[in-house]
Inverse folding.
């Protein structure tokens, strides 16, 4: 199949509703209750009835068959469902699958959902099996994997822990503008705060690592012809692509190059836009090293140059690149699988700029005239990479 | 059991059995003359199945390294590295005999078979 045939999905589907639920601490709520609440809120936002949902897409670290469990809980009988589990980027791949199923006419209304109560239930939660040939060395996954990448990155490009810390500082600056962010009230971070935080797996310290919170999210997707008639501004899926090259960090072909190089290239190609056309850039920042790698791999700068790009708070509210404008996984929310929150922020920025009420931000927290957002998801240990490009109607 | 799996054990168990005998063995594809790790039933990516076990030289180089912080009462900090073997493949292992935060990329290392939690394990020492 040539690129033109793949590109037929461009602009054919749109998100018409979104919601988050239980972000932060949701003591007394189960992962399913948090996820289902997000679905109902997203449907309310869309003005679409539960009865119309015929496509269900979900993944969590609590359910081995999340799409089936969620469908049952909601009382929905889906004509197509997908619970593919490729880690935190699962939802961005569900969006691609949902677009395919909608475009093929298999379904008419899709929900993509996630929920977690990991924080109130005791801490980081995974259902990952032990990795053969790695487990006996007792790596502290996933932190060890990202530390190995960070160490190699620093060695190859002369980057320092200060360069990594700049990412965390900018993420916090965005969170200070976002009342929904978990660290909204915590005040700014300095580079020194990040460097002096408790070491977890060198070279990564506690503030190089994402938050551990509860939280759920959901979006509602439909075909673009129907999307025009819903009550909020539809945001169109212009490009989507995925790729992965390894599952175990010891099998990653090159620790400083992710398969986002491939997913990004194909997603941007489908969209017809380039990285520099993006009004907002939402990257899966489970660790500070992620942001540097993805800025490079998605084409915002050359390999090894992201450490320059993030200097002087250039990816913060005062900077030129609007990166992780909610505060990211580092400072906004991270219930274990962050992908749908990357998506939510990409969509919210575009809807706010289109006049929808999607919440309050302090001055500078919303990006004026935002037309295009890239949402990039990462899963496993820099393993699965999925890129989605979103745009408002006049970018179609 | 499928006919083609009779009479032996899989490559993962074979690898472990070799370790128990004190041998660090890796697989080589004869037709490609290429080594690979971890052990598999066929060469990754192109599927050749003419494989043989070869004793690794044990010589390697640190590709990346991390110091995993752990409370002293739980055993203290430990090193976890990725080692590129002289034969080409890469593997996860610990580098011991040096402070866990002093292992640097590019250092030459040599394998020995030790044990971790009662299981034989490949461990590396700085050369």
């Amino acid at each position: 199949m040539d690129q033109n045939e793949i590109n037929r999905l461009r602009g054919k589907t749109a998100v018409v509703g979104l919601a988050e639920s239980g972000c932060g601490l949701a003591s007394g709520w189960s992962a399913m209750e948090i996820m289902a609440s997000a679905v109902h809120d997203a449907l309310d936002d869309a003005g679409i009835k539960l009865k119309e949902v015929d496509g269900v897409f979900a993944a969590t670290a609590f359910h081995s068959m999340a799409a089936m469990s969620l469908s049952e809980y909601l009382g929905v009988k889906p004509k197509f469902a997908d619970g593919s589990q490729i880690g935190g980027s699962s939802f961005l791949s569900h969006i691609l699958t949902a677009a395919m199923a909608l475009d093929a006419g298999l379904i008419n209304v899709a929900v993509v959902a996630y929920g977690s109560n990991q924080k109130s239930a005791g801490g980081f939660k995974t259902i990952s099996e032990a990795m053969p040939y790695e487990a006996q060395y007792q790596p502290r996954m996933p932190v060890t994997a990202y530390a190995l990448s960070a160490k190699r990155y620093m060695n190859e490009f002369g980057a320092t822990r200060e360069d990594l810390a700049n990412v965390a500082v900018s993420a916090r600056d965005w969170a200070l503008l976002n009342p929904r962010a978990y660290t909204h009230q915590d005040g700014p971070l300095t580079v020194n705060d990040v460097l002096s935080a408790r070491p977890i797996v060198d070279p990564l310290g506690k503030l190089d690592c994402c938050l551990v919170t509860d939280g759920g999210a959901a979006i509602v997707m439909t075909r673009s012809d129907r999307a025009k008639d819903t009550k909020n501004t539809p945001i169109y899926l212009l490009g989507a692509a995925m790729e992965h090259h390894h599952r175990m960090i010891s099998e990653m072909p090159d620790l400083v190059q992710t398969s986002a190089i491939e997913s990004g290239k194909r997603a941007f190609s489908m969209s017809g836009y380039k990285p520099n056309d993006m009004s907002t850039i939402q990257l899966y920042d489970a660790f500070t090293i992620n942001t540097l790698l993805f800025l490079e791999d998605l084409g915002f700068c050359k390999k090894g140059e992201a450490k320059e790009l993030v200097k002087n708070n250039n990816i913060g509210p005062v900077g030129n690149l609007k990166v992780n404008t909610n505060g990211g996984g580092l400072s906004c929310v991270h219930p274990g699988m962050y992908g749908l929150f990357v998506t939510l922020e990409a969509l919210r920025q575009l809807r706010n700029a289109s006049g929808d009420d999607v919440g309050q931000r302090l001055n500078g927290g919303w990006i004026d005239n935002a037309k295009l957002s890239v949402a990039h998801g990462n899963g496993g240990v820099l393993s699965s990479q999925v890129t989605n490009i979103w745009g408002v109607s006049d970018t179609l | 059991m499928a006919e083609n799996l009779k009479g032996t054990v899989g490559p993962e168990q074979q690898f472990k059995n070799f370790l128990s005998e004190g041998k660090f063995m890796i697989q080589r594809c004869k037709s490609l003359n290429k080594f690979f790790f971890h052990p598999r039933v066929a060469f990754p990516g192109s599927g050749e199945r003419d494989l043989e076990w070869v004793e690794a030289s044990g010589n390697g180089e640190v590709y990346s390294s991390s110091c995993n912080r752990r409370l002293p009462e739980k055993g203290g900090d430990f090193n976890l590295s990725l080692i590129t073997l002289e034969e080409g493949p890469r593997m996860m292992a610990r580098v011991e005999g040096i402070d866990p935060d002093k292992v640097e990329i590019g250092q030459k290392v040599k394998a020995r078979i030790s044990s971790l939690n009662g299981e034989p394990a490949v461990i590396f020492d700085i050369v």
